[in-house]
Amino acid sequence: MLKYTLTAVLTLLLLGCYGLTYGQSYGTSAGLRLGNNDQGRMLGFTVQQRLKKGVTLEGIVQSDFSYNTTIHALLERHRPLLSKRLNYYYGAGASVGREESREKVSENMQIIRTYGNNTLGVDFIAGVELTLLGVNFSVDYKPNVNIVGRQPWYSGQVGISVRSVLVKGNKQNKKRRQKTRMKRKRNSDGFFHNLIDSFKNK
Prior knowledge:
Number of strands: 8
CATH class: Mainly Beta
């Protein structure tokens, strides 16, 4: 998995050098995420929603279709790398799930495995992403610190995601500008109406 991850990172960097130079070019994207750690591989669904320039909310639902299913919510900060189409990002969030726990008992050198444990944890994430031809590719590392329900308390996961851009960034920006103009117009209209009313009442 490490070889494939390094290959994916290098590919994103090379493509980013030739990418078009505009900002984070999506407002909403959704797709699949393949995660890998010491416990095994997980397949998931990922959605990213840009909240404002350079800030994204990501939701992940993933499972190994056996003993582990988790849900993650992450707030991420994006910054341009080489070109603005290629970003690096970092962030943090929270997770809940039902997971397998492996508790080591040093006295008798045994490992106690339990299943179906309700878990709560804190997530961190760092990665790189490339948006090209309406598709968003990303490679990330997502450490999880478990608070309740699982041993070991720390687990790191490497993820590769492929998402389709559902709403482009320029369309989202256009809608926001339109809302801002309408709000300003309403405020200015309200000011003039109040001014006219004040003269009528005199």
